[in-house]
Structures are given as C-alpha cells and as structure tokens.
Write a structure and sequence with these properties.
61% of the residues lie in helices and 5% in strands. The chain has helices spanning 13-20, 23-26, 31-47, 53-71, 84-96, 98-102, 109-145, 165-190, 209-215, 225-230, 234-260, 288-311, 326-348, 354-359, 367-376, 381-390, 400-405, 418-447; strands at 150-155, 158-164, 192-193, 220-221, 268-269, 351-352. It folds into three domains: 13-102, Fumarase C, Chain B, domain 1; 109-146 and 161-195 and 222-358, Fumarase C, Chain A, domain 2 (Up-down Bundle), CATH 1.20.200; 362-396, no CATH class. Strand 3, helix 9 (209-215) and strand 4 (220-221) form a beta-alpha-beta unit.
Length: 457
C-alpha cells in the first residue's frame, strides 16, 4: 500500500530509512490495540452516517482477521509500510475494497497512534502492577517462612545490629507494593481516550467521542484535543518512571543476593538452573541473571530519561519527535516486566542457610543491645555508649532469636506486620484482575474473539 501521507513524488531512500527507522518492528506490539481502536472508530463513523452497515460489518470482519493473524504472529509489517497503521489499512483495502479506504475518515495518524498506545499502556500498567504485586506476595510468604531466622543487619556494609531474614525480605515486599500502587494510580490517568482529537484540533465532523471511548472501555474522554496530542510522550514517561522505581528496587535486591550468596557469606544459595558457567573455569556458577538485573535497571532508567529528553522542548501540537518515544517505551517496559519475572524465579529457588546466618551474628552485633540494656537498668546513654565502644572485647553474644523477638515495635523483627501487608497486596492484585477482566470483556464485544490481549509478552 502507498503511504498514508502519499504525495506526487517518491521519498528519498535515505530519508525513508531515517524517518521509518525500526518503527515497523516495534509496531508489532500495537497491532491488536490499533485494530480494537479502529473497530471503535468505524462504529463511530457508522453512527454518524459515514459508513453503511455493510461497510462496518466488512471492516469489523477484516480487523478481526488481522487480530487473529497477529495472535499467531502471522501479520507482517514491512519497512515500506512504515508502521502497523499503514499495514492494517492496506490489508483492509486489499481484503474488502473501498470500505478499507474509508476507515481513516476523521482520524489522523496522530490520534490513531495515541489511542493504540493508550490501550496498550493501560493494559501493561495493570499487568505489571499485578506481576509486581505477586512478587511482593512471594516475598511476604518468604518473610513469613523465615521470620525468626537471624541475620546480621548492616550499615555502610559493616556489621550493625541484629536483624532477620524476615525483615530483609519484607522490606523489599513493601517497597515493591508501594511501586505497584503507583502503577495502579497511573492506570486511572491512562484510562482516557484521545480518539477524535485528530491532528490536535479535531475535525469538522460530528464525531461522538464519548461513544467511541465507551466502545473501547475507557472511563472517559481526554477532553481537550490539543492536550490529547501534547500528552504523547508525557504519559509514556509516567509509565516508564513507574518502571524505573521497580527496576531500582530489583537492582538493590539483586545486589544483596549477589553479596549474600558469595561463599564468604553463604547466607543463601541461588538455584543452579538460573546460573551460568565460565568458558574457562569449570567450577563456576555465575549469578549472571542478577548482574544483568543491575544493568537492566540502568537500561530502564535511561529509557525514562530518553523519553523526557525528547519531549522536553517541543512546541504544542504533533511533532515527529514523538515517534522516537516509542522505542524506549517498548524497550523499557519489556525489560521491567522480564526483570520482575526473573527476580520472582530467583526467589522461588533461593535456599536459606540458617546455620551460616546464625554464625554470622558475631558478638559485636549486640553492642547496641548491651548499651540499651544498661540504659534500662538506670545508666545514662552517652557514658554507657562510650564505655562499650572502648571495651568491645567485653561484649558477649546474645541469643540471636530472642534478640530479634524482643524488638516489638510495629515493623521491627519481632512484629513485622505481615498480615496487613498480605491483605493489602491481595486486594491490589484482585483489583488489577477485575479491571483486566473488564477490558477482556470489552475486547470480546469489539472483535467477537475470546481471550484477546494487547500486551503480548
């Protein structure tokens, strides 16, 4: 098919390569979302008399076929197509004739791309929220299982105070939960339809934007048509920022696991099937997955910053710069999703060595406990602190389990508050499932196909 913007000349080949880049490859992720939005748009056109019922039926059948082909990974998009939007319209025109040439009436490629991205992003946000929530729950279960297994607490990487495996694991669980909650909140912002904004200024047709938004299951219309286009890149950056926080936490957890699985520590052992070997040293089982978790975290951060850098100084309305926000969006979101999945798998097979953890609780770990026990007996803190600090060799090891149980304030080793954490995580995951199920019903009504998902990884 000719390009959607076709003129009476051929584009310079270098210019074509420069402007298309790898967009046509990335757009495989958006094919289903674009088809769903196109069905809604076609129904809107039929509602105002632009399409006949027969034309609408033909278009819906054609778009259903594209969805089915994409689900089987059999819908090709070439560099000559530029993107999935041209490829889909070309397919419709070849399949059903002139009706395919009417589908773009009243729509710019700007709001077409925006709508497909919005459908994709709102589903991704909820799927990542649920995946992160499930990981948080797994960490809480792990914390509950090893709640009273002693573990040295560290500051500045040095021995500090008594802690527990339960406290360590629950700290990450709560952090991931908070970050998943940000995605849940963002999903509300994403849940507004830009369709009908055209090239930023609407069109002189009585498009029923509320109708098409409802068809796609959006909670509302993105009201101002100029803002609808100005928000491109901004919403992607918001989503990537949420990904960035999750990736940062995963990176810290990965670093802890790399450290604590060293033979010199031996607190934990990683599942061997998640470790790789060396090409020269036969004894090696390397934590490559955890090392890559650190670097992938940096990748996600760079994607977030890249999008914001692209849109930072753009004037109002559509600018071609927006095209370059798609690659960091797809790259950063996929990296985050895989990062959560691989860290979940690491945790599932993680072996805890209670003997090594207990033996690591050396006498100096209890120095602060000794100080505070003397303070409770009536001595002042400052003089006692100085005395113990000058005579650390006099500090004796305490019962490690009793020591962590004596910390009874909420959120400490003896009172982790796991029941509340588990409740909050369960409710959040159930909320994600409810909304995703609602979207699934919307998609079924649009294309009359079962189990349609727009995020295909």
């Amino acid at each position: 098919m000719s390009k959607l913007w076709q003129k009476d000349y051929s584009l310079d080949s270098l210019m074509e390569e420069f402007t298309v880049s790898n967009d046509y490859i990335l757009d495989q992720q958006l094919v289903i979302a674009d088809c769903l939005a196109s069905i809604a748009h076609a129904r809107g056109l039929a509602k105002i008399g632009i399409l006949s019922e027969d034309e609408l039926s033909s278009l819906e059948c054609g778009l259903q076929k594209v969805i089915t082909l994409r689900q089987k990974d059999e819908f090709p998009i070439t560099a000559q197509d530029e993107d999935c939007h041209t490829a889909i319209e070309g397919f419709l025109t070849n399949e059903i004739g002139d009706a395919g040439k009417k589908i773009h009436t009243g729509r710019s490629r700007n709001d077409q791309v925006q709508t497909a991205l919005r459908i994709w992003m709102r589903e991704f946000a909820l799927k990542l929220c649920r995946e992160t929530g499930e990981f948080s729950k797994a960490l809480l279960d792990f914390a509950q299982k090893y709640e009273f297994v002693p573990m040295p607490g560290r500051t500045h990487m040095q021995i500090a105070m008594p802690s527990s495996v339960g406290l360590w694991a629950a700290s990450f669980a709560e952090e991931f939960y908070d970050e998943a909650q940000r995605l849940m909140q963002l999903s509300w912002t994403l849940d507004q339809s830009p369709l009908g904004s055209a090239a930023s200024y609407g069109v002189p047709l009585p498009l029923d934007r509320e109708f098409t938004a409802d068809q796609m299951g959006f909670a509302r219309v993105q009201n101002n048509v100029l803002y609808a286009n100005n928000s491109r890149g901004k919403f992607e950056a918001m989503l990537l920022d949420c990904c960035d926080y999750i990736a940062l936490t995963a990176s810290k957890l990965a670093q802890d696991l790399i450290l604590f699985t060293l033979p010199e520590f031996g607190y934990f052992s990683l599942p061997k099937e998640l470790c790789t070997g060396s090409s020269i040293m036969p004894q090696k089982k390397n934590p490559d997955g955890l090392e890559l978790a650190r670097s992938r975290s940096a990748l996600v951060s760079s994607c977030s910053m890249r999008v914001k850098s692209i849109i930072r100084s753009l004037p109002s309305g559509y600018n071609r710069d927006f095209q370059d926000t798609k690659e960091p969006l797809i790259t950063g979101t996929k990296a985050t999703y895989q990062l959560v999945q691989i860290m979940s798998r690491m945790l599932q097979g993680l072996e805890v060595h209670e003997d090594r953890l207990t033996s690591a609780c050396v006498p100096e770990l209890y120095a602060t406990d000794v100080v505070l026990s003397k303070v409770k007996a009536g001595e002042n803190f400052r003089d006692t602190y100085k005395d113990i600090g000058l005579h650390l060799d006099s500090v004796q090891a305490l019962d490690p389990i009793q020591t962590i149980k004596e910390r009874s304030s909420i959120g400490t080793t003896g009172n982790l508050g796991l029941d509340d954490d588990l409740l909050f995580v369960r409710l959040m995951c159930e909320g994600c499932d409810e909304v995703l199920e609602a979207y699934s019903e919307v998609y079924k009504d649009l294309c009359d196909l079962e189990d349609v998902q727009v995020v295909l990884y």
